[in-house]
Structure formats: C-alpha cells, structure tokens
Amino acid sequence: MQLVVNIVVLAAIYALIASGYVLVYRASRVLNLAHGELMMLGSYLLIAVASGISSSPVIALSGAALLSALVGFLVYVMLIQRMTGQAVLAAVLATIALGVMLRGLVILIWSTQQQYPARIIGLSNNSIELFANARISTLSLALVVVTVLIYLALFAGLYLTQWGIRTRAVGQNPLLAAQRGINLNAIYALTWGLSTFTGAAAGILISLDSGLDGTMTMIGLKAFPAALVGGLDSLVGALIGSLLIAAIEVVLIQTADPLLSDVVPFLVLIVALAIRPWGLFGTREALDRV
C-alpha cells in the first residue's frame, strides 16, 4: 500500500503544477515555459517573507502566496502583454528567457545552498500511519489536500463564475469575446496570476516537505508532460495525465532503477504524442493552435 501512497503524492505534485500550464494555455494559448522557475521563486519568496517580515507560518505562507500571484500578474503586464499581435512563438521564447533570468536571479540572491523553509517558520513534518503499514508525512498529506481543494476551486471558478465563463470564451474565440465587451488583458492578467499562484503553492509545499534548492525547476519541467499527455486545455486531463505518469514513474523506480525518475515523464510523453498528439482530453483544434 505504500506504493499507492507514493503514487498519490507524486500525482498531486504533478497535477498542482500542471494546472498552471493548463490555465495559461487555455486562456491565452501560450506555453509558459518559465512555470518551473516561477514555482521555485514562490518557495524562495517564502524564505524572504519569513526572514524579513514574520516567521509566523500563517503570515509567511500567505505573504509568499500573494506575492507569487502578484509576480504572475506583473509577468503578464510587463512582458507577455507586449507580445500582443506577435507570433505565439515570440511569447513562448519570452517565457524561456524569463526562466533563465529567474534562475540566475535566485542564485545571485539566495545562492545554490540547500535550504529548509519548514525550519525557518517552525513547522514539524511528522510521519502519519495510514493503513497496512503505509505512511505519509504531514506536509505530503497537506499537499494532497491542497491539490484537491485548488482543483475544486478551479472547476467551480471556471464553470460557475462570471470570470470562468469569460475565460472560457476568451480561450475559444478571443476576437469574438472582445467584440462582446470582455476585457482580454484583464482575463489574461488574472489567469497568469492564478497560474503562478498554483505553481507557487506546489513549490512551497514541496520545499517545506523536502527542502529547497535550484533543482526544483526540474520538478516543474517534469509536470509539463503531465499537462501535455492529459491535454493542454483540460484540467481533467491534467489530473489523469499526472496520475498516469506518477504511477509509471513510481513503479519503475521501485522495480527497476531510481535514476529513471527524470526520464519516465518524457518517455510517456513521446509515446502519448505518437498515439494521440492532442492529449487524452485535449482537442485537435487546440493542437492546431500550438
């Protein structure tokens, strides 16, 4: 049963990160290849808030999450918005450049030394016994719960609120949406802020559970195949893709070689693209836009 627990935790990590890829692509049809770096920045913002403002867990976590959302908003306003009217590739290349810049900035400010945010804000990470001798850490359980809550909130927001209806309309036909009076820039900016918030939430919880260093961007990159396999315009697809890749990865780590962990998501992606390039729950039309 420990194998099942490990799969669920890894799937929750990938799903929470993948939701950020899906949100941005669904609204603006832009692949945010700096998502892993923005996720990592959220974790370092937790350290900055805890060290400079308050080490209270509530204040530090809330401050880091809000600052991360603000960063996503500013990335759109100051960078992506300027790509309006340009080829989609220009925006994608801009996110790659942004990711490189953020990695360098993090190294300059915080260095490459391993850090443990949980110690700074005074959180313990006890092991909890579930069933059949299966165990899970407190913070891993928190990550699974947060993933479930965020997905429920995203589904409710996209299908039950005015923002969600407008976001789906903008994603399907931005020209028609603009003609109907929808503020495209407001929708895009809000979506980028929300995407960065979900990525930062994943990064913060991962860093609290296992520590933080510059290699966190690799986790963000490994979640990208989960979004692609599930379908870049589908949150349900992100969930299924994350569960599929996590299951294969954990099983191969246990039965073959732990070094396969960084390879498995991309092997699954290659197979999935060969069979169904638009993803399990994606659409052909979305693939054409890519």
From TrEMBL:
The keyword Ligase does not apply. One of its GO terms (molecular function) is transmembrane transporter activity. InterPro entries: ABC_transp_permease, BCAA_transport_permease. The keyword Lipid biosynthesis does not apply. It comes from the Bacteria. It is a multi-pass membrane protein. It is found in: Cell membrane. It holds the Pfam family BPD_transp_2. Its main location: membrane. One of its GO terms (cellular component) is plasma membrane. Keywords: Amino-acid transport, Cell membrane, Membrane, Transmembrane, Transmembrane helix, Transport. The chain crosses the membrane at residues 6-24, 36-53, 59-80, 87-110, 139-161, 182-206, 226-252, 259-279. One of its GO terms (biological process) is amino acid transport. Belongs to the binding-protein-dependent transport system permease family. LivHM subfamily. This is Branched-chain amino acid ABC transporter permease. It comes from Afipia broomeae ATCC 49717.
